[in-house]
Amino acid sequence: MSPGEILLGDDEDRAIVAQVVSGQKELFRLLIKRHEKAVYGMGMSFFHNIDDASDFTQEVFLKVYRNLSGFEGRSRFSTWLYKVAYNTAINSIARNKEYHSLVNEEIVSDCDTPERKLLRKLARNAVLEAITGLPERYRVCVDFFFFYGQSYQEIEGITGYPVNTIKSHIFRAKKILRKKLADYAELSHGGY
Fold first, then answer.
1. Has residue 98 got a pLDDT over 50?
2. Which candidate among 63, 83, 92, 165 keeps its CA 20 to 30 Å from the CA of 39?
3. pTM beyond 0.70
4. Which of 62, 96, 130 marks a domain boundary?
């Protein structure tokens, strides 16, 4: 494989890891390129701040690089990476106990009216607030399942929660979100 070649799939992640561990350190950038958005997204879901999410992403990839030889290949590379990221986030939160406000990036369309933009922003804020308001154990499971596409078994490998607990957390989180967002929908329709 040439240094510029980008491979697809978990088998390719394993191949890249093997090459980096065997001395082709420059190929680590391929792993960063493939997984940076997911790790950054996880950082945003934990820290709700662009700067902290960027710092978190750098810290995670530095830890992964330093411990790459510890990846044994018993799970997907992404699962191992998310476990490192999850543990980094939990440890960081435990150290700081400081939460930052979420920096919203608006998607703007040329044909959007000011009313549509406002409604979309209000809806997005309501969803983010509802998710952020979930108990942390529920929010983590929801994030991994819905936003990172992880299976129950992968979430178990990352968080250490048993599969049935994860299913229960996701079920309860959906119930809470449904109620919170139904309340929001009633308020928003009544107010307009």
1. no
2. 165
3. no
4. 96
